[in-house]
TrEMBL record:
Catalysed reaction equations from the record: Ca(2+)(in) + 3 Na(+)(out) = Ca(2+)(out) + 3 Na(+)(in)
Calx-beta domain ranges (all copies): 344-442, 466-565
Any Gene Ontology CC annotation: sarcolemma
Name the record gives this protein: Calx-beta domain-containing protein
One Pfam match: Na_Ca_ex
Originating species: Cimex lectularius
Length: 807
């Protein structure tokens, strides 16, 4: 019903306008595509409503076609402007490999992005000029100002209010915003100057060309503001930029010195990407604590695909496809099909039989008396008796005073796999350092004729020498850590700190311990420890469990120390004191005192908590593979025709099936979809797609001001330059009636200054950003911006119909 009312209102408005000014006519004219419906005179009200309805539906159908081909065009623009290239550069004498975006974000938004999003308006201006024999169209410059007012007031009003409560968005490149805002206001002042001041009602060639030249000047000044280039260094910087970008586009690996600003920009971009990836992994680990890092990596990729920021072109495409029964394809990164790892171990045929000790080292207490040493066979089962000799050798321990020397021959019977022999340790009451000696195997053999005809060779295996450590039991022990410092991964969970007891293990000994903060803080980086270890008699090793708190940091270097306090013998079970009471020899007291427990050289352990290498590698992988999950382009004609026929939901994020309305829109637009599927796939122009990373308000606000300027300089500049040159070539003037342009421009510029001031004021701490923020200010801002647009429309309408006097 609304289109009927609008059609009737349009007809009534035409009559009213004719009554106001008899020189104006409301006669329809032949269109480029839609023909004129004859007859055009003596029409009744019902005829007007019916014809208006038909024209309305025809224009809406053409509008859908324009939207679909614009979507194809924007897909190509998105692919081009989001390209990245890996280059090798030198930064401070150090070679680094990094991804460089071919297009600067600001330049892309003001050039190709603006060209793509404004293509229908630009083409409409050019087609209108050509269709009317290079005469000014009926729409007039006032409609351009009206479009700018809608963009600045209504679109920003919506953007301010749609941000979720409690969140805000701030413009990152504020200097770029000021530049584009200035140009957007100047554009409409300039429009008024060339039409109403310099040559009233006439557009000269120089005026049209200068209007177009303002477009690259807008891009250049915005780029300078983006890179914060000082005025006196602009020529040199631009030359260097041109050379570096030429090099980047020409080769895969280039050598170029980064300026400080370039290096800082790269470091900031890299750090932001790392923080985003690390934060995402942290959240996923909390949500799925039982999943492995490989599974978390897959989930992180999916999350990045769904929630990654999109470019201005993306949202333009999404809006278009939502009204044509389509959606943006979400092609997530495909994980390679898991292949079961099969380790092939070459089986080496070895018929040898090896004789060796079971252990390379044995540790025993001095009071153990006799202990057993085992010798084993490796290889095929024995079929004949095998003999091997063994013999002890002194180390720091001496045979006869510390142990009883051993030697002999062991005989392995057929089918036997191991043999044993005993060694006796000599105990004394003299305190002494820990000592050791060795036992060596030799002379493996098979006796006599029994070895004849055997295919097996008998050899000594490893270890063929075993070390016997004798711990003195007359001392209560020297307590300490194996190392003075260790590095611990934050993902370790619980790190087991080893406390060793050397030079004796007599009695039950208590060893107090405690942790002390360094850069690591108890409760934040680790769980504070304070307690006492109790070593039983003959016990030489204890564990202190240190719980490390994982922050899932990309880089971490937190330090703490663990201290051991003076060890104390448990009074009730002090063997030294008992021995001293039972032996009243002159040396008894001396032996007892020498055997008291003490701290060793390493009684303080320095622990450095480092980042998890697995976590860091995963973050690096995510940063390096940050690609756009929403592929706005296609890779083949087959895919395009398949997409043209398929019906998809209107929202790319919710995963819901298509609605009935989606099916209706799809049927309505399938002709256009199939027709424009013949356009070459966008991925034939570029092989890699990545979304522009921007979670700020720049794409919401900055692009509005930039588009308003570009629409005048590019859209009007091209069309009017063509018409002015054409008329100048034929000796005529290109006439463009200014209409009520002075009145419209004055109101728009005044309101635009008010709007820009409010946008900047919203950066205060109370609100938090240009978009969103506190609930009440957010909705008040949106209401005020919308009222500015309503005021502009009402005042312009009243001035057009001479209700109020213009100027």
């Amino acid at each position: 019903m609304w289109f009927v009312v609008l059609s009737f209102a349009a007809g009534a408005a035409t009559v009213t306008a004719s009554d106001v000014d008899s020189n104006e006519t409301g006669q329809c004219q032949e269109g480029l595509i839609v023909p004129l419906w004859e007859p055009t005179t003596n029409l009744t009200t019902s005829d007007r409503i019916f014809r208006g309805s038909v024209y309305f539906f025809a224009l809406m159908y053409l509008f859908l076609g324009v939207s679909i081909i614009s979507d194809r065009f924007m897909s190509a623009i998105e692919v081009i402007t989001s390209q990245e290239k890996k280059v090798s550069i030198k930064s401070k004498g150090e070679r680094k490999t990094m991804l460089v975006r071919v297009w600067n974000e600001t330049v892309a938004n003001l050039t190709l992005m603006a060209l793509g999003s404004s293509a229908p308006e630009i083409m409409l201006s050019v087609i209108e000029i050509w269709a009317k024999n290079f005469q000014a169209g009926d729409l007039g410059p006032g409609t351009i100002v009206g479009s700018a007012a809608y963009n600045l007031f209504v679109i920003i009003a919506i953007c301010v209010s749609v941000i979720p409560n409690g969140e805000s968005r701030t413009i990152k490149h504020l200097s770029v915003f000021f530049v584009t805002a200035t140009w957007s206001i100047f554009a409409y002042i300039w429009l008024y100057v060339i039409l109403a001041v310099s040559s009233k009602g006439v557009v000269d060639v120089w005026e049209g060309l200068l209007t177009f030249i303002f477009f690259p000047l807008t891009v250049l000044t915005a780029f300078i503001a983006d890179k914060k280039i000082p005025i006196h260094k602009i020529p040199l910087k631009l030359i260097r930029r041109f050379k570096s970008h030429s090099a980047v586009g020409a080769v895969e690996s280039v050598d170029m010195e980064l300026s400080k600003s370039d290096y800082d920009d790269f470091e900031e971009m890299l750090e932001n990407a790392r923080q985003q990836s690390a934060t995402l992994l942290k959240d996923l680990r909390k949500e799925f604590p039982d999943k492995s890092m490989a599974e978390l990596k897959t989930l992180a990729k999916e999350k990045m695909e769904q929630s990654g920021p999109k470019s201005r072109a993306f949202y333009r495409i999404q809006a278009t496809r939502s009204i044509t029964g389509g959606s943006i394809s979400q092609r997530g990164v495909k994980e390679p099909t898991p292949v079961e790892e099969k380790i092939s171990i070459a089986e080496v045929k070895d018929d040898n039989t090896y004789v060796r000790f079971e252990k390379e080292e044995h540790t025993v207490l001095e009071n153990i008396g006799t202990f057993v040493v085992k010798i084993v066979l490796d290889g095929p089962p024995l079929t004949v008796p095998l003999m091997v000799d063994y013999q002890s050798e002194d180390g720091s321990a001496q045979a006869g005073s510390d142990y009883m020397a051993v030697s002999g021959t062991l005989i392995f019977k057929p089918g036997q796999k191991e043999q044993l022999f005993k060694i006796k340790i000599i105990d004394d009451d003299v305190f002494e350092e820990d000592e050791h000696f060795f036992v060596r195997l030799s002379n493996v053999r098979v006796q006599g004729a029994k070895a004849n005809g055997l295919n097996t060779t008998f050899k000594l295996g490893e270890p063929s020498v075993t070390k016997i450590n004798i711990l003195d039991d007359d001392h209560s022990g020297v307590f300490g850590f194996p190392e003075a410092s260790v590095e611990v991964s934050e993902s370790v969970g619980v790190y087991e700190i080893v406390v060793e007891r050397k030079t004796g293990a007599r009695g039950r000994v208590k060893v107090p311990y405690y942790t002390e903060d360094g850069t690591a803080k108890a409760g934040k980086d680790y769980i504070d420890l304070k307690g006492t270890l109790l070593f039983d008699n003959n016990e030489s090793r204890k564990i202190i469990p240190l719980r490390v708190i994982s922050e899932n940091s990309y880089e971490r270097n937190s330090t703490l120390t663990v201290h051991l306090s003076k060890p104390v013998i448990e009074t009730s079970t002090n063997p030294l004191r008992s021995s001293f009471r039972g032996h009243q020899s002159p040396n008894a007291e001396k032996v007892a005192l020498e055997g008291l427990p003490v701290l060793g050289e390493v009684s303080v352990l320095h622990i450095t908590i480092k980042e998890s290498l697995e976590f860091k590698d995963t973050v690096d992988m995510l940063v390096e593979t940050r690609a756009s999950p929403f592929i706005v382009g296609t890779t083949s004609w087959g895919e395009q025709f398949a997409d043209a026929i398929k019906v998809k939901g209107g929202d790319d994020d919710d995963g819901e099936p298509p609605s009935c309305f989606d099916y209706f829109l799809h049927v309505l637009t399938i002709f256009w979809k199939i027709l424009f599927a013949f356009v070459p796939p966008t991925d034939t122009f570029a092989s890699k797609v990545s979304a522009i990373q921007d979670s700020t308000a720049d794409n919401s606000i900055g692009n509005v001001t930039g588009s308003n300027a570009v629409n005048v300089f590019l859209g009007i500049g091209i069309a009017w330059s063509i018409a002015a040159i054409y008329h100048s070539f034929h000796g005529n003037a290109f006439i463009v009636p200014p209409g009520n342009l002075a009145f419209s421009v004055t109101i728009f510029c005044t309101e635009a200054l008010i709007a820009i001031t409010i946008i900047v004021m919203r950066r205060c701490k109370f609100i938090g950003g240009e978009l969103g923020g506190a609930t009440i200010p957010k909705y008040l801002t949106s209401l005020f911006f919308f009222s500015l647009w309503v005021f502009y429309v009402v005042m312009s309408t009243l001035e057009v119909y001479h209700v109020i006097e213009g100027f």
